[in-house]
Write a structure and sequence with these properties.
324 residues, alpha+beta, 5'-nucleotidase,  domain 2, five-stranded mixed sheet, four-stranded mixed sheet
């Protein structure tokens, strides 16, 4: 039989959560922001790009981030065109309450990280023929660890190569020059991400560098990022599948820039990421003590239950202390 006090507290917590969740961030979404499981776990999407850009542009760390990533498995719903976007909608899209984190990553580990992200095999039909997506690209198998990435990074990979040998080009934006430069394997980069990946979740055991906490949840960072976006700036998220950051293709035989990594042979996209890019810590673990975390689970929305139980437990404990 349910405890009446606990039930009362849970109902009060739910009412408070619903009130805060109803706050409107965007009156009317100009585009559908794609967050369905079969897409965010297999390829770049506009919602994944937006979330990664929000992390990248967060001004909460001692050092500016060079780029940002978040795992597709942590994105759980699509935000519909012509509908308002509320705080609750954003929490439903990222229901785990992950904290914004920045870690230091050596170039060699950035390469390993993207190889791990792009390890899934191409899906095939019953006849063994490759399945192509609506954009005519090979459809990778579902992988909760697929990395949605910020506009400051471009990754070229060949999905027909064997896992671990697919990534042939990684370029990072140089903020001083405004130009993309080949990944320096010996350089240490500052990467914004979530606390799940920062400690090795989804198999990212190579991410064990020094860490700084951002002091905010990812959903709150995305809320603030959306608030300052103008309609013109929102254009960069128009295409649901832009293929402008994580780019399947083949290595070019004739590099555009002699002496640098080869460019990619890819068709033009509708991505507008080059336009309007400017919008409106304790002791850290090492690779030896990074704890192993589970892989991203099944796509279910547990936000309401989790928040309610957490608040209920907290309030009940407080009440008992006061009664003593």
């Amino acid at each position: 039989m349910p405890n009446a006090d606990v039930e009362k507290i849970v109902k009060a917590a739910q009412a408070e959560f619903d009130k805060k969740g109803s706050v409107v961030v965007i009156d009317k979404a100009p585009y559908t922001l794609e967050g369905t499981s079969e897409n965010v776990r297999t390829k770049e999407t506009n919602l994944g790009n937006l979330i990664a850009d929000a992390l990248y542009n967060a001004k909460v760390f001692k050092h500016e981030s060079d780029f940002a990533v978040t795992n597709g498995g942590g994105i759980r719903t699509t935000l519909k065109k012509d509908s308002p976007i509320t705080v609750g909608d954003i929490i439903k899209a990222m229901p785990f309450g992950n904290q914004l984190t920045q870690i230091q990553v050596k170039g060699t580990d950035v390469k390993k990280m993207y190889e791990h992200s792009l390890r899934a095999l191409i899906n095939t039909d019953n006849d063994g023929k490759e399945i192509l997506d609506a954009q005519g690209k090979p459809q990778l198998g579902s992988n909760g660890g697929f990395l949605q990435s910020s506009s400051s990074v471009k990754v070229g990979f060949d999905p027909h190569k064997k896992p671990g040998e697919r990534v042939y080009s990684i370029e990072i934006l140089n903020k001083q020059t405004g130009k993309f430069e080949p990944l320096d394997l010996q350089k240490t980069y500052y990467m914004a991400t979530n606390d799940f990946l920062a400690v090795g979740g989804d198999g990212y055991t190579m991410l064990g560098g020094a860490r700084e906490e951002g002091g905010a949840t990812m959903d709150s960072i995305v809320v603030e990022y959306l608030k300052q976006l103008t309609n013109e700036q929102f254009l960069q998220y128009k295409d649901p599948f832009p293929y402008s950051r994580i780019i399947p293709g083949v290595k070019s035989t004739e590099p555009v820039n002699p002496g640098k990594d080869d460019d990619l042979k890819t068709p033009p996209t509708n991505d507008h990421s080059k336009e309007n890019k400017k919008f409106g810590s304790g002791k850290q673990p090492t690779k030896d003590n990074v704890r192993k975390l589970p892989n991203t689970g099944i796509a279910t929305d547990t936000t309401t239950v989790g928040v309610g139980l957490l608040l209920a437990t907290s309030l009940l404990m407080t009440r008992r202390k006061n009664e003593k």
